[in-house]
Write a structure and sequence with these properties.
With 279 residues, the protein is of the alpha+beta class. The protein has 5 helices and 10 strands, in the order E-E-H-H-E-E-E-E-H-H-H-E-E-E-E. The N terminus and C terminus are likely disordered.
């Protein structure tokens, strides 16, 4: 049973690295600054050992019923990899206005082995580009990029109650809940919103074809209020392919659409090594 969390009306200054409950190393011009200087190159490395118990907490919090993720020797959800990349920037660069995420899941990641997240960012003519890689046992399991533009960090919603599922999400992600949510700003964190389509894919496809291979997401900057449960809308193909299906998706809250994009989904695993790449 969680003690209800509320944002502080006047939060104290935060040490960003203290938000992470797993090891993290930042290489930047001033790695001790309250936020990354997005006008200079930086590198973030995080190491996360995800076991079955923590994995099940993540899938319960994000509504993913895929049984491949719910036993101790299961497979790391692809949504977990996506969310950790985005959450790293929410913590370390709260002033970054996310524009787009592209991530390919290239290999199965298993519970019980350490995951290494490597984010390398640098300014470019359109704003900021961050290269993302995830490794396990020396093998690349995911790669992609996140782009955005520097802006101003939005203040948190002072005094707003935090939904229990969001508190469980923070625990599963290894993020100290109150300081993480304060840095993520008002509304539901974008990293949390990114996780919601996976569960909807599994439910709508009945476990058949819910094998996530590649995701492209765009961020509108609109907020999803903490008090309002977001909904996921999928554009399923009229005729399913035997090779892959591209599925349009939107995460909506009221009239707002904070996250939209598409998922490339394999219809079924072609071999055991390709299982659940992973919704």
């Amino acid at each position: 049973m969680h003690t209800p969390l509320r944002f502080l009306a006047d939060p104290a200054p935060l040490a960003p690295l203290e938000v992470f409950q797993d090891p993290c190393v930042v290489t930047a011009a001033d790695a001790r600054a309250p936020r990354l200087d997005l006008g200079r190159p930086f590198e973030v490395r995080r190491w996360i050992l995800l076991g079955g118990t923590r994995g099940r907490l993540f899938t319960a919090a994000t509504g993913d019923p895929n049984p491949l993720h719910t036993h101790s020797h299961g497979i790391v959800p692809g949504a977990f990899l996506i969310a950790q990349c985005v959450a790293s920037l929410e913590v370390l660069a709260p002033q970054l206005r996310l524009a787009q995420l592209k991530l390919s899941l290239t290999r199965v990641a298993s519970y019980g082995q350490s995951l290494e997240f490597v984010l390398q960012g640098a300014p470019d003519p359109t704003g900021v580009s961050v290269r993302c890689r995830v490794l396990q046992a020396g093998h690349e399991v995911a790669r992609g990029s996140i782009t955005g533009t520097p802006g101003r960090a939005a203040p948190p919603a002072a005094g707003a109650p935090v939904p229990p599922a969001l508190a469980d999400y923070c625990d599963a992600m290894g993020l100290a809940p109150e300081p993480f949510l304060e840095r993520a700003g008002p509304g539901l964190p974008r990293s949390f919103l990114c996780t919601l389509p996976s569960g909807q894919l599994v439910r709508d496809l009945g476990g058949e074809g819910g094998l996530l291979n590649r995701v492209t997401l765009s961020f509108s900057g609109e907020l999803a209020p903490l008090a309002e449960a977001p909904r996921v809308e999928l554009g399923l193909p009229k005729r399913a392919r035997s090779t892959f299906n591209r599925i349009a998706l939107e995460v909506r809250s009221g009239d707002a659409c904070p996250v939209s994009g598409s998922a490339l989904v394999l219809p079924r695993p072609a071999a055991p090594s390709l299982r659940a790449l992973a919704c």
